[in-house]
Write a structure and sequence with these properties.
Helices cover 32% and strands 23% of the residues. It is an alpha/beta fold. Bound molecules: acetyl coenzyme *A. The site of acetyl coenzyme *A has 24 residues, from helix 2, helix 6 and helix 8.
Length: 333
């Protein structure tokens, strides 16, 4: 019997309206547009403003439109996985909240935390439920309100991150296309370089942890950069080799958008030209779990049935990985 493959059959994304420019950041910390552009490639990022709004509010915008676009009833969704590092609350899972707000009343739902690699981890996890024949309609969300954990007095991190999200519908493939292969990796010893110090069970929140700024992102940028460049490039080359793909066979590289220099180094190692790489970091910054679906959404109208895509990510944990998929439908325009 032919293997059931899981394919992305629809995508939508959402980024909030407020644009935080490099110019505005120069009034908040000692930085410049030149430094940010040269070191990261970021010109602006989006920020979710408004009391009481969280990651689920970003996700609901993407999921509602995704369901409309694919003429899918929320009642028909079997499973919702939300990849996030900025859940609405410690518990319940943000996926539970999204399911409730969208009316996906027959779905079970859970969150997945793999930092910036979360979306590809969740995509692969969701695909297994489809490939096994257990479920037919799975929503995978990558969403983060990074502004909720960014210290806007720390110039080394506040210039990088933004808010945004995207969601895909996974279904049994209509044409044998879909997710072909994936490699996912973890090295927990990397946690010393990138983490949030307080608010977990090791160091619950106290007045002291707040005063010490321990609820913000802690990142040793250079150390993370070194691991990111090496591992993202290695895993992307490994997935190409294992699937006998040459650089000219790859239609698009869809990299996590953490830093333009990491993206360029990965593309170079893969032998891929710049016009084969989805890059929108200049407009959104690093939206953590939102970056890859934001790219797929912006490029959706250019994508063709049978295009070979390599999705590639690196993030806190450390976590990293690559997914090889054959796009299953022609772009909408
Ligand atoms: N403006 C001006 N100067 C700055 C700024 C800024 N915004 N930020 C740092 N600097 C200064 C530093 O203080 C330092 O000054 P010094 O030499 O006088 O000490 C100098 O610039 C160089 O600092 P570095 O940290 O070495 O700068 P680098 O070139 O490494 O860039 C960056 C920093 C952008 C953070 C980079 O290291 C990076 O992209 N790292 C990887 C990030 C990443 O991939 N994270 C993983 C995903 S995130 C997740 O999983 C949640």
């Amino acid at each position: 019997m032919e293997k059931i493959r899981a394919a992305i059959t629809g995508i939508h994304a959402y980024a909030p309206d407020y644009v935080l420019t490099n110019e505005e950041l120069t009034h908040m910390v000692d930085t410049s547009d030149e430094w940010i552009m040269a070191r990261t490639g970021i010109r602006e990022r989006r920020i979710l403003k408004g009391e009481g709004l969280g990651t689920s509010d970003l996700a609901v915008k993407a999921v509602n439109t995704l369901l409309e676009k694919t003429s899918t009833s929320p009642r028909d969704i079997d499973l919702v996985i939300c990849a996030t590092v900025t859940p609405d609350m410690v518990y319940p899972a943000t996926a539970n909240i999204i399911s409730d707000k969208v009316g996906m009343v027959n779905a079970f739902s859970f969150d997945l935390n793999a930092a910036c690699s979360g979306f590809i981890y969740a995509l692969v996890t969701g695909s297994k439920y489809v490939e096994s024949g257990t479920y037919r309609k799975v929503i995978v969300v990558g969403a983060d309100k990074m502004s909720s954990i960014v210290d806007y007095a720390d110039r080394a991190t506040c210039v990088i991150f933004g808010d945004g999200c995207g969601a895909v519908l996974l279904e049994p493939s209509p044409n044998g296309y879909g997710i072909m292969d994936a490699i996912l990796r973890t090295d927990g010893s990397g946690r010393i370089h990138l983490h949030q110090k307080a608010g977990g069970s090791v160091k619950p929140s106290t007045h002291e942890t707040i005063d010490a700024g321990e609820h913000f992102i802690y990142q040793e940028g250079q150390a993370v950069f070194k691991f990111a460049v090496t591992n993202m490039a290695d895993v992307s080359v490994e997935i190409m080799e294992r699937n006998h793909l040459k650089s000219e066979d790859v239609t698009w590289l869809v990299p996590h958008q953490a830093n333009l220099r990491i993206i360029e180094a990965t593309a170079k190692r893969m032998g891929i030209k710049k016009d084969q790489v989805m890059i929108n970091i200049q407009r959104y910054g690093n939206t953590t779990n939102g970056t890859i679906p934001l790219c797929l959404w912006e490029w959706e109208d250019k994508l063709k049935k049978g295009d070979n895509l390599i999705l590639s990510a690196f993030g806190g944990g450390f976590t990293w990985g690559a997914v090889y998929l054959k796009w299953a439908y022609n772009g909408l325009s």
